[in-house]
Amino acid sequence: MAEHARHPGARAEAIAAWLLALPALLLMWAMLLGPALAVLLLSFTDWSLGEPEIGWAGLGNYLQLADDPVFWQSLRNTLIYVGVSVPATVGLGLGAALLVESVGRGRAFYRAAYFLPVASTLLAMALVWEFMFHPTVGFVTQGFRALGLPTTDWLQNPDTALLALAVIGIWQNLGLAMVLFVAGLQGIPRDLYEALAMDGADGAWERFRRVTWPMLGPALVFVVAIIAIRSFQVFDTVAVLTEGGPNKATEVLLHTMVQEGFRFLRTAYGAAITVIFLVFTLAVTVAQTVLLDRRAHYG
């Protein structure tokens, strides 16, 4: 009250600010939170696409999910995919950022070259990767043969199909991780490196260990969260290259959700899978962010 008494216009400014923000808040509810709430409510029904009536099913869809081996297989495959692609993408993205920043000339070219897969249409690129993984004339197969290593039908072998898709995901997200790390590297004060050099520790490893890595903490938190979310959303390559096969070896949550909801028209069951997907993605992302945020240095 004392604050408002000293500044009579403060209350009016606050009301005006809320009024100006109201359209954006309503749009956010309508476009983001509204559909999420609708999916949540739909998951407790027995509605199928095209049916005129809708009935309450309670936890029936979730109980059915608990007994569905395809759901558990897709969840396992999704976790394996994320567990492979996220660490590899973050590590390679950091290495690419360090290499690009160490180049004296042509930095803009290398940044654009690394970022090109992110801007490319993944459906078109998936066809290129399908040729690269061809069991006889593919570039990957030819490379393995040149090194004297065993080859296989990468996309049709249950032991390698999911890893092959993870390689495509790493290739696609590498440029995004690199660009974000480059932004973090450019935000590190140069005087920290100068102070380290004055202490007599001017080696590349010492510069990375004592300055670069600690100061990249905030960027690392953001990169891991973004790459994890994008990895959980894998769908295009599965739909185009494997369709969940062979023998459900590449079945992931989003593909299962689309199949159940739009191919088999089990809309409510697909909504239940969507809810599980959203909750699981949010939980894993928050857990990763919290764990990394505790180690991050914000200076």
Automatic annotation (TrEMBL):
PROSITE patterns from the UniProt entry: ABC_TM1
Organism: Siccirubricoccus soli
Domain ABC transmembrane type-1 stretches: 75-288
Record keyword Calcium present: no
Keyword line: Cell membrane, Membrane, Transmembrane, Transmembrane helix, Transport
Protein name, entry field: Sugar ABC transporter permease
Coiled coil: none
InterPro entries noted in UniProt: ABC_transporter_permease (IPR051393), MetI-like (IPR000515), MetI-like_sf (IPR035906)
Protein family (similarity comment): Belongs to the binding-protein-dependent transport system permease family.
CDD domains cross-referenced by the UniProt entry: TM_PBP2
Organism taxonomic ancestry: Bacteria, Pseudomonadati, Pseudomonadota, Alphaproteobacteria, Acetobacterales
Compartments where located: Cell membrane
SUPFAM superfamilies, alphabetized: MetI-like
Membrane spanning stretches: 79-100, 112-132, 161-183, 215-235, 268-292
